[in-house]
Amino acid sequence: MAYPFGEIEKKWQKHWADKKTFRAENKSVKPKYYALDMFPYPSGAGLHVGHPLGYIASDIVSRYKRLKGFNVLHPMGYDSFGLPAEQYAIQTGQHPEKTTKDNIARYREQMDKIGFSFDWEREVRTSDPNYYKWTQWIFIKLFNSWYNPETDKAESIDTLIPKLKNFSSLSEKEKSDTLMNYRLAYLSEAWVNWCPQLGTVLANEEVKDGVSERGGYPVERKLMPQWSLRITAYANRLLNDLENIDWSESIKESQRNWIGKSEGSSLKFQVADSKLGIEVFTTRPDTVFGVTFLTLAPESELLSELTTAENKKAVDEYVHYAKNRSERERQSDVKKVTGQFTGAYAIHPFTGEKLPIWIGDYVLAGYGTGAVMGVPAHDSRDHAFAKHFGLPIKQVVEAPKDWDIQKESFDAKEGKCINSDLINGLEVKDALKKIISEIEKRGLGKGKTQFRLRDAIFGRQRYWGEPIPVYYKDGIPHVMEENELPLVLPEVDKYLPTEDGEPPLARAKNWKHQGKYEYEKTTMPGWAGSSWYYLRYMDPQNKNEFAGKDALNYWKDVDLYIGGAEHATGHLLYVRFWTKFLFDLGLIPVIEPAKKLINQGMIQGMSAFIYQSISENKLAPTLYLSNELLHKDDVRSDSFEKVEEIFVKSGLSNQEIKDVKYRPIRIDISNLKNENELDVEKLKSKKDFKDGVFFKEEDGRFLVLREVEKMSKSKYNVVTPDDICTNFGADTLRLYEMFLGPLEQSKPWNTNGISGVFGFLNKFWRLFHKGEEFDQFVISNDEPTKPEIKILHKTIKKIQQDIENYSFNTSVSAFMICANELTELKCNKRSILEPIVILLSSFAPHIAEELWEKLGHKESITFAKFPEFNEALMTDDSYDYPISFNGKMRFNMELSLSLTPAEIEKEVLANEQSKKFLEGKQPKKVIVVPKRIVNIVV
RNA sequence: GCCGAAGUGGCGGAAUUGGUAGACGCGCUGGUCUCAAACACCAGUGGGCUUAACACCUGUACGAGUUCGACUCUCGUCUUCGGUACCA
Questions:
Q1: What percent of chain A has pLDDT over 90?
Q2: Which secondary-structure segment (H or E) carries A791?
Q3: CA angle A530, A534, A538 (to 5 degrees)
Q4: What is the CATH number of domain A261-451?
Q5: What is the distance, to the nearest Å, from the Cα of residue A363 to the centroid of all Cα atoms in its chain?
């Protein structure tokens, strides 16, 4: 008989909600602890078993910290603006707000069933006007700020104006345009990732492999006026401050790569017979004597002036080609070298040589100056370009012997400079210093640091996002007054772009600032609201401020932040950026949002595939083959003869039958009977499959192919936590998700081990109960024995250490060991069990509350005190020493811990068994490690 | 290509500063209980050798090395997963 988890869990979930057990106070004498989960986007698919993994971990820590006497802030909310709800709205006409509300209700219901200790009074939703009012407010602050390089922080734009020459004499439009070059939120013409299918631009990190991350649509480059945030101003600080936060090395490394700092020099090349100059950025100015050509990006503005008449046609054609080559193509054939000679030449600033000027799409317009100096001998890309177009290759750094510079470039930043005039003979490191100072002395350029990081495009041509609080007056953008916020998202008749290609907001009727001025029509990107939500949780109801000073100063920053690693270069970079910005303005007391970050591993799904026939002939019925049939060596098996028969009957010709192909298609895993067998009848009840002909294995089973993939609705492999809560209870789900393995590791979901965890909870329950049905609560008040005390203290120590190391899988094992040992001792003593219930309460709170109440406590176990362990009570007087000979363990020997190493040695050597292994020889050496091991070298 | 993480039984995974490899759980085998099943309980379970036991050999991706002693440290090789991709 299983313990009554159903009743218990319902009872305590209600109790916690009614009593507001987990309410956090903004004023407290207790130390604070802020445990934050990345809030979810409430998708229509509901919560799957991957979501709670991190939530359970942070919940364990939160409950543990409460027991340790902390005032814990553990909130939850919803990142509720975003594309899927809008796509759904376009399809169905249903307002995204409605969809979002419904989805949130479902998420909430699912989360409530798992027994999280969230303070629900602090819930935030980014799509709520009371919330996005402050997102807009921060945008206005960004607009009104610039980054002062001298103070190295953001300041009000007012401090910039006195530094600008002749500013007051400029026209309004000119003033606006000038300041736009400085504002941290600014409007500019920018090359963007335009996704025609989604009808919007995407940020760099929303594009994966040249297609949109959501939906997988092609992305092309387009020049458009765009609102952007000047995150690049913070590049250095975003990089340097990584040193001081306890985040995983892999996340820090991806941020470092994303920021991509490189040091080098700018260098100007004069164009021959022209006033034009071309500035390049290079990290290897030491190779300047190896330059044999220059390459410009196809987007370069200089092209029109540079290109000679006879090359104009070819250049135009190339530019056209390069522009229309989608990002995807560019990326998929990186190896393909393309380019075009402009006909123009540049003058080498040191040697005066004439260098041909080329364009090539391996040069990116957005990085550096959009121009590179070609040093084919020491840069593999330049090398490939030079080889392809037959340009000379000139070696200027010594390479290892037998290195054929014509065949392969020598890119390493080491060796002696050769053929290099004034830096001849210098090591690269020294040559760099010397040549940069020479470049600076001659006024050709200067030492420079370049970042890969680009400014973040902030506008989206979409409906379901925060309106940007900007209006246009005489073509000049103005931000709204703070007291006019929020700028509420207007109603529209359709969620599609207008016929003229304007964003959906252009459909809003009479939507004008003060009834006169056009509002900005783009909305903010998905990451806007999530860039500061951790602050709003501190004071979510505040009507006057984004959060009150007292709350901000009390909670400060997040102590533990848990979420997916996929946000490494998106959200996690933006939230750091906004934090630093708000700090610069004196609005918050911290420069980093989270001290500690843990990336929980992804819980993958097991997709199921079956083979489907595809034929050109429409008359052909669709056949489905069991997994193994296609892999049989003898394809002419009985089944295949039948397959052909069917096709013949449908009127297919021999050739058409030959052309029939089979492809694996995903089917919903709810159609499976067990691990790899399909319930054919169930699948046939679905309309897409009802006319299919299914071919089974000889034994009558229809097998599917299982493959581990990301768990997602579109892959039909989602497992929700609900069934487990119903069948085994939330406590089992919580323990099981932790027991699966280390938190940070990705793993496919399988329920094979769940009975073990469930069995443990029942066993634990039985420690407190007697009778046939284990329904009589019986506890003894006897004094505990020494072994019982030892078990208790060992467990306290282990659980505490494991929680502090976020090693939850091993704590679950420790609980199991503890229950096994106490069961063995038939221990039902209050003095042992009571503290263990407290330990367990962070992991399995419902059963713990119930037992706690039965133990006679009136208050929730949340307010109990975490027991302390005493090392002295855990140790025995003796230790069972493993005795090894030449490092090989041979036998064990129980020895008193009071013995000195010399005494141990004597005892061991005197032992009968030792004599056998010594074979009469004298031991060369005896190593005794007290309380560890004895090793005898023979 | 580059960066990061990781390779341990049939499976998920344990193993303090280098100190009994395989904890705990699943699965499997045998048994007790039961009319039967479920639950529960007991015993066993890396591989090899041996009729069997005692014992022995071998074993943490592979190959070397350091050490009294290596899953753990060093060097090299291979594989898998994740991130990233012409950033000059």
A1: 51
A2: helix A786-804
A3: 140
A4: 3.90.740.10
A5: 29
pLDDT in tens, A121-149: 999 999 999 999 999 999 999 999 999 99
Is 60 exceeded by the pLDDT of residue A633?
no
Q: A734-768, pLDDT tens digit by residue? A: 999 999 989 988 888 888 889 999 999 999 999 99
| Alpha-carbon gap, residue A694 to A703, rounded angstroms | 11
A330 touches strand B (CB under 7 A): yes
Strand B proximal residues, A:534-593, Cβ < 7 Å? 565-566, 568-569
Continuous segment of H or E residues that includes residue A638: helix A638-649
Domain A30-135+528-600, CATH 3.40.50.620 — does that match? yes
Predicted interface score ipTM higher than 0.85: yes
Question: How many angstroms is C1' of B33 away from CA of A875?
Answer: 39
* C-alpha to C-alpha distance for A711 and A713, rounded to whole angstroms: 7
Q: Where are the domains of chain A?
A: 30-135+528-600, 137-232+455-524, 261-451, 609-710, 722-861, 876-937
User: What is the spatial distance, in angstroms and rounded to an integer, between the CA atom of A887 and the C1' atom of B67?
Assistant: 11
Per-residue pLDDT at A634: 46
- Across chain A, mean pLDDT equals 88
How far in angstroms lies nucleotide B73's C1' from the CA of residue A31?
A: 41
Q: Which nucleotides of B are covered by protein (CB under 7 A)?
A: 3-5, 11-15, 17, 19-21, 23-27, 39-42, 56-57, 68-70, 81-88
Provide the token pair at A389: 């177009």
A88: part of which helix (H) or strand (E)?
Answer: helix A83-92
Helix axes A5-19, A730-739, angle to 10 degrees: 100
Scanning residues 701 through 760 of protein chain A, those with a beta carbon under 7 Å from any atom of strand B turn out to be 739-742, 745-747, 752-753, 755-757, 759-760
- Distance CA(A825)–CA(A26), nearest Å, equals 46
**Arithmetic mean of pLDDT, A701-725:** 81
Whether residue A771 contacts residue A764, with contact meaning beta carbons closer than 8 Å, is answered with no
